[in-house]
Write a structure and sequence with these properties.
Blueprint: E1 14-17, E2 20-23, H1 25-150
Antiparallel strand pairs: 1-2
């Protein structure tokens, strides 16, 4: 824009002719110079606007790119999180099944141990009874043997 921030005043002088007043050539030159100044200011303004629009367009493209990348990143993250979530669900389900199987096995082992304990108690009782009977028989043999030696 022109360096002057004031309004441009154009003084138009006229010559009187039989047809009426006609602007002088100098006045027309001043009008043309004023229009040229105005045109120059408009061109400079247009260039500034175009430059600013170009910068704004570039920034908008960058923003679009970032938004697109962000959207893609968010979508990728969402897909990965969903995949991890499904893997975790499968792992939890598998571990739960293993735990339930382990609990069943532990209950079976407990039943086997109870049965083994019962069998052991019964066997122990029979063995104790046989040992007791054998000790009585042995005591009787020793007693008989001792009596015979005394004779």
């Amino acid at each position: 824009m022109s360096e002057e921030k004031e309004k441009v005043k154009i003084q138009i002088e006229a010559i009187k002719t039989p047809a009426g007043e006609v602007p002088t050539v100098e006045s027309l030159k001043r009008v043309v110079d004023g229009l040229n100044t105005l045109n120059s200011d408009i061109v400079n303004l247009s260039m500034n606007v175009a430059s600013n629009m170009s910068a704004i367009d570039k920034e908008l493209r960058n923003i679009r790119k970032l938004v697109a990348e962000g959207t893609v990143s968010i979508e990728v993250m969402s897909q990965k999180l969903e995949k991890v979530s499904k893997q975790l669900e499968a792992l939890v389900k598998s571990e739960k099944e293993k735990w339930e199987t382990l609990q069943g096995i532990m209950m079976d082992i407990a039943e086997i141990i109870k049965g083994f304990q019962t069998t052991l108690e019964e066997s122990s009782s029979r063995v104790d009874q046989r040992i007791s009977e054998t000790l009585k028989a042995l005591a009787e043999i020793i007693a008989v043997s001792a009596k015979e030696e005394q004779k």
